[in-house]
Amino acid sequence: MCGIAGLFSKSTSIEEELGAHLSAMLSQLADRGPDSAGVALYRDPAPAGSCKVSLFSPRPDEPWEGLARELGAAFGGDPEPDVRSTHALFVVPAGGDEVQEWLARERPDLRVMSVGERIEIYKEAVDPRDFVERFGLSDVSASHALGHTRMATESRVTTEHSHPFSTGLDLCLVHNGSLSNHNRLRAFLRGQGIAFQTDNDTEVAAGYLTWRLHEGDELEEALRGCLRDLDGFYTFAVGTADGFAVLRDPIACKPAVLAETDDWVAMASEYRAIAVLPGADEAQVWEPEPGRVYSWELATVT
Amino acid sequence: MGAGDRNVSSTEVAGESVDLAKTSVRELNQRLHDVDRAAPGRWRVSNPNGAHSVAVGLDADVEVEIDGHVGYYCAGMNKLATVRVLGNAGPGVAENIMSGTVIVEGDASQYAAASGRGGLVVIRGSASARCGISMKGVEIVVGGSIGHVGGFMAQRGTLVVCGDAGAGLGDSIYEARVYVRGEVAGLGADCVEKELRDEHRAELADLLRRADADADPADFRRYGSARRLYTFDVDNAGGY
C-alpha cells in the first residue's frame, strides 16, 4: 500500500488554496497509509543568496529561538523560525551546502528534512488526517506539492522513515512499493559518498537519484536509470523546484492516476484523491504507462 | 433472454437513484443484494468519486448505471446483473464475474475481469496491465488497447482486443481464445498465433455484436496456447 498525491497549480486560485487541496487528497489516501504522512511544499522562494532549511527535532520543546541566534551568528541576518508542530523552517542568508555542513557539525541532533530555494518538507509518524491538522496545511499556498501516506513494509515507523525523502537541493521523492536490492545499492552508494540517515528502501532510491544527478544526469535520465538499477515495485513521484515527475516500474503493480484540467495537474494513487479537486468531473484522467517518465514544469504548462 | 443477449448499448435512466455522496457503498450494496428478484428494476448511482467495491456481489437480473469514475473492484463477483460505469474503473473491475454483463464506458485499470468464470465484460476505452488474468470462461471485449501480460494464465473464455496488446500477451495461457485487431508487442510463454477459421470469425462477429463494438471480424488475428507448458491430453479436449 501507501498513497501518493501530487498537485501542480496552473492558476492563481489553485495556488492560493493548494495546501487545502493537498490536505483533502491526503485524507482520501489515509487508509492506504495510516502509519505516517508527509508533504513537500514548493512556495515562497528564498531571496537570492539565501536558502530555506526545513528541520525536525525529536524534542517536543526544541528551543528554535536559540538555533535562530546561532544561525544568525554564523551566517548573519536575523533568521526567524517558522514553527509547524515538530518542524521549523529557516531562511538563512547562505548557500544550501554551506548551511547543511554547519548543521551536521553544530547540531547533529536535528534532522535536515529539506534544503533549497523553494522546498519545505514536513513529515510525521501520525495518521494523515491528524498530520494535516497538526501542521496547519489547510492555510498554505504553494505552486506545487507532493504528499505521501505510508503503510510501512520494509522498515520502522518513525518520522525519519517517513516520506518524502530529500534527494538534493529542492528535490524530493515519494514512493509506493518496495525495493528488493536496497541493501547492496546502499552500500554501493555509500562508496560514492552518498549519506543515509535510515535503513529505509525509499531513501536508497532517493540517494540513487542524488548520485545520478550529481554525476550529471538530467532528472528524466536519472529516473530512466531507475528502470535499469532498481529491483522491486515502485510508483515514484519526484518533486523539483519547477514541477514534478512520475515513474512506474515496468511490472506496474502499484497504481497511479494522472489528471489534468486548465487549472491543475494532479497525480494520485487512486482517483478518489483526485475527485476532491475542483473541476475533477471535467478533468482528463488517465493511467500512466509502465516504465515511462512523465514530467511537468512550471514554464511549460503556463 | 439470456444476459449475454441483452443489448448493452441501451442508456435508459434507472428507476431508483442512489447518491453516494449521501449513502454509503455498504448500504447501496446491501440494497442491491436485497432487491426483489421478480422485479429487480433499474438503478442509477451518482457521485461514485472513485469509491471502492461499488455494486459488488450482485445476484439478480438488476441493471445498475454508475455515473462517474469508480475505484477498486467495481462489480466484482457479478451474477446476472448488468452494471454500466459511465467513466473509468479502477483495478479489478468485474473480478471473478460469474455471469451478467459489466460495461465500462471509459478505461479500466489493471486486472480487469480477473478470474472471471462467465458473463460479458465490455471496456469501451483501454484496459491496462493483466487484463483477463486467470480468466476461466468470461468473455471480454476491449474497444481500445490492453497493457502488458493480457490473458496471463487464461484457462477458458475469450478475450477480444480491438486495439493493440502490450508485451507478454497470453503468457502461460491454457485454453482461452485471444483475438487482437491491432499490433501485439510480444507474445508470452507458450502463446502462439493460430489460424482464424470460419468458426472463429462467427464467434467474433457474435461477440462484437453483443458488445456493440464496431469492428470487422476479418481484421483480427487469433492467439492461443501451444500446449507445451502443461500436460495436455487430446482425449480430454472436450473438457477444456
Task: List the SSEs and their pairings.
The complex is a heterodimer of chains A (302) and B (240).
Chain A: E1 3-9, H1 12-16, H2 18-28, E2 36-42, E3 51-56, H3 64-75, E4 82-84, E5 87-92, H4 96-106, E6 111-116, E7 119-124, H5 128-134, E8 144-150, E9 165-168, E10 171-179, H6 182-191, H7 201-214, H8 219-229, E11 232-239, E12 243-248, E13 257-260, E14 264-268, E15 284-286, E16 294-297, H9 298-301
Chain B: E1 16-19, H1 25-33, E2 42-46, E3 63-67, E4 82-85, E5 101-104, E6 120-123, E7 136-142, E8 156-161, E9 177-180, E10 191-194, H2 198-210, E11 221-225
Q: Mind explaining what this structure looks like?
A:
The complex is a heterodimer of chains A (302) and B (240). By secondary structure, chain A is of the alpha+beta class. Chain A has two domains: 3-44 and 127-301, Aminohydrolase, N-terminal nucleophile (Ntn) domain (Glutamine Phosphoribosylpyrophosphate, subunit 1, domain 1, 4-Layer Sandwich), CATH 3.60.20; 45-117, Alpha-Beta Plaits (2-Layer Sandwich), CATH 3.30.70.3400. Helices cover 28% and strands 30% of the residues of chain A. Chain A has helices at residues 12-16, 18-28, 64-75, 96-106, 128-134, 182-191, 201-214, 219-229, 298-301, and strands at 3-9, 36-42, 51-56, 82-84, 87-92, 111-116, 119-124, 144-150, 165-168, 171-179, 232-239, 243-248, 257-260, 264-268, 284-286, 294-297. In chain A, helix 6 runs parallel beside helix 7 and helix 7 packs across helix 8 (219-229). The longest helix of chain A is centred in the last third of the chain and has 14 residues, at 201-214. Chain B is mostly beta strands and 240 residues long. Chain B has a single domain (11-227), classed as 3 Solenoid (Pectate Lyase C-like), CATH 2.160.20.60. Chain B has helices at residues 25-33, 198-210, and strands spanning 16-19, 42-46, 63-67, 82-85, 101-104, 120-123, 136-142, 156-161, 177-180, 191-194, 221-225. Chain B has an eleven-stranded mixed beta sheet with strand order 1-2-3-4-5-6-7-8-9-11-10, covered by helices on one side. In chain B, strand 1, helix 1 (25-33) and strand 2 form a beta-alpha-beta unit. Chain B starts with 15 loop residues before the first strand and ends in a 15-residue tail after the last strand. At the A-B interface, loops of A face loops of B.
